[in-house]
Design goal:
The chain is globular, with a radius of gyration of 13 Å. The chain has 122 residues and is mainly β. The strands form two sheets. Strands 2, 4, 5, 6, 9, 10 and 11 form a seven-stranded mixed sheet that branches. A four-stranded antiparallel sheet has the order 1-3-8-7, with no helix packed on it. β5 and β6 form a beta hairpin.
Length: 122
């Protein structure tokens, strides 16, 4: 199984940027893919972005399109989430996860990190 560790979260003012990283303990199979999800207190976990292992397929939630960018570096076995133009509503715990297929459904992801807190103030 894959062990995942998120980092890069913290405090930011509205309009600022943060870059999240998700490091895997080992390289996953070529048909495994990466996703970012977030969960705010009292809310359901929601999809943020996903990327295929090759980087050829990328998906974003409508709420982050044009502001967030997901990327993967297979040499470093790490997936990133560049977050620009942050808004207070982006405040949440962000999780990375792996799946056998590209998906926006968290139930299709098998391995999860512990999460990293992102707090955006106005």
């Amino acid at each position: 199984q894959v062990q995942l560790v998120e980092s890069g979260g913290g405090l930011a003012q509205a309009g600022a940027s943060l870059r999240l990283s998700c490091a895997a303990s080992r390289r996953t199979a070529s048909n495994y893919n990466m996703g970012w999800f977030r969960q705010a207190p009292g809310k359901e976990r929601e999809f943020v972005a996903a990327i295929s292992r090759s980087g050829g397929s990328i998906y974003y939630a409508d709420s982050v399109k044009g502001r967030f960018t997901i990327s993967i570096d297979n040499a470093k076995n790490t997936v990133y989430l560049q977050m620009n133009s942050l808004k207070p509503e982006d405040t949440a715990v962000y999780y990375c996860a792996t799946a056998a297929v590209v998906s926006t459904n968290p139930k299709l992801y098998n391995s999860w990190g512990q999460g990293t807190q992102v707090t955006v103030s106005s």
